[in-house]
Amino acid sequence: MDDGKASGAFFDEYIAGRTGADRDDVVLGPTYGADFGAIGVGDRVVALATDPVFVLRALGLERAAWFAFHICVSDVALSGLPPAHLAVDLNLPPGTSAATFDAIWDVFDREARSLGASLTTGHTGTYEGCSFPTVGGATALAVGERDDLVLPTGARPGDHVVVTKGPAVETTGLLGVLFGDDLPIGEAAAAAARARFDDASPVRDALTMAAAGDVTAMHDATERGLANGLHELAAASNVRLAVERDAVPVLPGVDAVCEHFGMDPWTASSEGTVVAAVDPGSVDAVLAALDDEGIPAAEVGTVEAGAGVTVDGEPLAEPDADPLWPAYQATREQYGE
Predict the structure, then answer these.
(1) CA dihedral in degrees (162, 166, 168, 170; nearest 10)?
(2) Could you give the number of structural domains in the chain?
(3) Residue 153 counted as domain residue
């Protein structure tokens, strides 16, 4: 396997068709490009998603735990249903102090309360072979009405494409917080880059859009960035996305950081950015609701019959690598962080 999230080719070869028993209560099973699964329970639906607990201590435990929590609840929020329950498995390295656990858990408790979500069950322990930053996993659940569920398979030709925040938000925020004082990009750009860290959650974006209008599909732009997020949404819904590059928002600090590291911002991890397909009649309402919440967003293209993604009429290559972590490792070695 390549490092990072499994590719569509890996999914097709090793996972598709090997997903256990077929059950009538599965509303959405494993699907490449889908952020969550869903099951029916009576007249309700439960969306669920599992992600690593990723605590990057170099951020400081407060920021690291906030980021870890939002990674855990982000995918299920893309169902359009508010996160309701979280099961957390913490597999910590031997010697982890109670103070470290307390600092992480305090943030998880605070953030869960802010969303009205329960930390319902889990497991906590220290074990040989475990190490930060990946110290376990979590499964988030969201419960709601079937009609309120936004499936990633639902984009339709004629829908419009809306993108929040734009490319490389997570990459810019992480590198800005970790190395902003050292990067030769100027004080203003460094401050803007650090500010992007607070944008690295798609939860408010997704829930705001789903409540505002007819959103037919959503996906976030995590590993391999906006380009990969567009491709995964297109693949999940079996459609083509036609996007205009200049219409995509770019937040302050992004260009400066990406230019310094020589990275394509469209392929850089962007937790916090949502790609959505929206019924034409709901675009104005969705954009207005996002604006009311202070979330930058724009209509950037349309959904068409076909497959893949075009940008300004040309095919967009599907990225096979993410430049964030190589840049992080190289800069960490350079500055001794």
Answers:
(1) -80
(2) 2
(3) no
